[in-house]
Each structure stands twice: as structure tokens, then as C-alpha cells.
């Protein structure tokens, strides 16, 4: 899975964090690395933990919580 978190307001407006990794939907907690960043997060390192709270196999809709842990300079 590849995902970009883009900040639209406040101190981090215009900054992004990019995540890339295997997202196994049926695992309780998944961990994916931060692979790139921009703006105030330039040279950031970190990871994301994803937890699925609800998943509907018929529609493919899901409610997923993402906790992002980032170290930046």
C-alpha cells in the first residue's frame, strides 16, 4: 500500500508524509514505514501503525485508525 498524508492547515501546512508497505487487512495491527516526506517533515523517519475497526467485505468499506510516529528535525 502507498499512501500520502498531506497537511492542509496550521504549522505543517504544505508538508507531506509518504507511507509504503504491506497492509494485511486481517492482521490486528499492521506496521508500515515512512519512506519519504516534504516540507517541515523533510528527512523524517518513522512508522505507521494501522488498526481496522470495521470492515464490510461486500462493499470493501473499512474504518481504519492510523497512528503515525515521526521523528523530524
From TrEMBL:
It comes from the Eukaryota. GO terms for cellular component: apoplast. GO terms for biological process: phenylpropanoid biosynthetic process. Belongs to the plant dirigent protein family. Keywords: Apoplast, Secreted. Homodimer. This is Dirigent protein. Dirigent proteins impart stereoselectivity on the phenoxy radical-coupling reaction, yielding optically active lignans from two molecules of coniferyl alcohol in the biosynthesis of lignans, flavonolignans, and alkaloids and thus plays a central role in plant secondary metabolism. It is found in: Secreted, Extracellular space, Apoplast.
Amino acid at each position: 500500500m502507498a499512501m500520502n498524508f498531506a497537511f492542509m492547515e496550521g504549522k505543517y501546512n504544505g508538508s507531506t508524509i509518504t507511507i509504503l508497505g504491506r497492509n494485511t487487512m486481517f492482521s490486528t495491527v499492521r506496521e508500515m514505514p515512512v519512506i519519504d516526506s516534504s516540507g517541515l517533515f523533510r528527512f523524517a523517519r518513522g512508522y505507521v501503525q494501522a488498526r481496522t475497526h470495521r470492515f464490510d467485505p461486500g462493499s470493501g468499506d473499512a474504518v481504519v485508525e492510523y497512528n503515525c510516529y515521526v521523528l523530524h528535525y
